[in-house]
UniProtKB/TrEMBL annotation:
This is F-box domain-containing protein. One of its GO terms (cellular component) is SCF ubiquitin ligase complex. InterPro entries: LRR_dom_sf (IPR032675). GO terms for biological process: SCF-dependent proteasomal ubiquitin-dependent protein catabolic process. Gene3D superfamilies: Ribonuclease Inhibitor (3.80.10.10). It comes from Anopheles melas. SUPFAM superfamilies: RNI-like (SSF52047).
């Protein structure tokens, strides 16, 4: 039987109770004030609650956890969440995720963070899209938060903001300024020569698949940030490296461990291999035919390919597949023999196939460490799929968009083979699987945590109601998906 729901820890229960008490106190005060026709006095309540917290010995971790729980709550309206932010943010809080707020709250949120968040090390403002008229408050945040090591502000960065980061953020290590922004070469230069240039290791910049930041500007980052290891989101890193080698410094070397490049040609891939001696993770989108062999000398841990030749992949895998732990392939042309991948990449942990022309498996060997397998929009015959799954009993996650397995197939597979580590099963379309398959999975897979997509299985609403009743009576932690399709 799948695992039981764990007993909530005392800390979790206490945190939930305390958060509920704080929110309830605010709600009661607002209702009482409205009943008497007077505006709510938030200041007095904030003083009382903070005094109570101090008297009870609340640590900075408690304030931080309360903010995390309250700000991400979908059931609380924005005014309540903002009030709690104003009440609980203090210099002891080191990590803050604002989550999503309406536009009307942006200015006030920025003012609160600037005034009360001096101790923050990590700030994620992904749900607060600052407009130009509020940018001055963003400047104040950067000035007043000198200890920031990680800042996430997608879609809002401009040259002036980068200048403030360069001038005041001495400890910045990870910076997310991705998305559609107003960054130019001027802003990039500020960052290159700023206080944090020697500390930055991760810069998330640009938009996937779009060169909204010129590759020559990104080349400035590569040349002037000596410890830069990752340029997330940017899709033309190879082009930037090629520009440096051909126009600036033929002997250039960098510390990049991850590279994403689009429409890579032979010269670009040569530049990548030549300039990135630490490279272990690469994503090539639509590489030129016949160039994957140039990666044979690189000990990659992760490889992601889009629009490529399956034959070339197998050739590359035979040369350096033993170092690979994660492989994602999308829209590969030609048949792909999984047997050859098994022989070439014995240490794979995750394997994802998307929109492949065709997949086959006919061998008896297997991946000994494979934990995650996804096969989506990739034709594979039932015997091949069944044989592959049965030879991969180490799986924790299994997702296939369409299967023709019957209840008898599932029963024989899980009885004859021990899937003792399997946690998640996802079959989007399984028209021949009924309640019997769910029950046998529950019975034979002790680590099972979720099963879906049951709306594509041969189950009635009554079947699912029965299953949920059984799970509830057994206190099982198993989740049946989706929750909204069936009553």
């Amino acid at each position: 039987m799948s695992k039981k729901l764990p007993v909530r820890t005392l800390s979790e229960l206490t945190l939930a109770e305390l958060a509920g008490t704080i929110v309830g106190s605010i709600g009661t005060m607002v209702q009482t004030s409205l009943a008497f026709g007077i505006p709510p006095d938030y200041t007095l309540l904030m003083v009382e609650i903070n005094s109570y917290m101090d008297n009870m010995g609340a640590t900075s971790n408690i304030y931080e956890d309360l903010l995390r729980v309250i700000l991400c709550s979908d059931s609380l309206d924005a005014s309540m969440r903002f009030c709690c932010l104003q009440m609980l943010l203090n210099e002891g809080v080191q990590c803050l995720v604002t989550d999503i707020f309406p536009l009307a709250y942006y200015e006030r949120i920025l003012q609160v963070i600037a005034a009360q968040g001096r101790g923050l090390r990590q700030l994620n403002m992904k749900g607060v899209w600052v407009k130009e008229e509020c940018m001055c408050f963003m400047f104040e945040i950067v000035k007043r938060l000198p200890h920031l090591t990680r800042l996430t502000i997608p879609h809002i960065a401009n040259d002036n903001l980068l200048k403030h980061i360069a001038d005041y953020s001495r400890s910045m290590r990870q910076l997310d300024i991705s998305g559609e922004t107003d960054i130019t070469e001027i802003g990039i230069e500020y960052l290159c020569y700023g206080e944090c240039r020697n500390h930055l290791t991760v810069v998330d910049i640009g938009s996937l698949g779009e060169e909204n930041i010129c590759h020559t500007d990104v080349a400035l980052l590569l040349q002037n940030l000596p410890n830069l290891a990752t340029l997330k989101s940017y899709s033309f890193v190879g082009r930037s490296l090629q520009y440096i080698v051909e126009k600036k410094d033929a002997n250039f070397k960098c510390r990049l461990v991850y590279v994403h490049d689009m429409e890579t040609d032979a010269a670009t891939l040569d530049a990548i291999v030549r300039t990135c001696p630490r490279l272990e993770d690469i994503y090539l989108d639509s590489p030129e035919a016949g160039i994957l062999e140039k990666l044979c000398s690189v000990k990659l841990r992760r490889l992601k390919l889009y629009k490529f030749s399956a034959y070339e992949l197998l050739g590359l895998a035979e040369h350096n597949g033993k170092s690979l732990y994660h492989l994602t392939v999308i829209k590969g042309y030609g048949p792909l023999e999984i047997d050859r991948l098994v022989r070439s990449c014995p240490n794979l942990i995750d394997l994802d196939f998307y929109m492949m022309d065709s997949l086959t498996f006919a061998g008896d060997s297997s991946f000994t460490n494979l934990q995650g397998l996804e096969i989506l929009s990739s034709p594979i015959q039932k015997p091949s799929l069944r044989r592959f799954i049965c030879h991969t009993t180490t799986l924790r996650r299994l997702a296939v968009d369409a299967v023709t397995f019957s209840d008898e197939d599932i029963s024989s597979m899980v009885i004859e083979h021990d899937f003792y580590q399997l946690e998640d099963v996802w079959f989007t379309s399984a028209p021949y699987l009924s309640i019997a398959s769910v029950e046998i999975l529950m019975d034979r897979c002790p680590e099972l945590q979720s099963v879906g997509q049951l709306s594509g299985w041969a189950l009635t609403p009554d079947d699912v109601t029965l299953l949920r009743g059984i799970l509830k009576s057994c206190n099982s932690s198993l989740v049946l998906s989706p929750a909204s399709i069936f009553p």
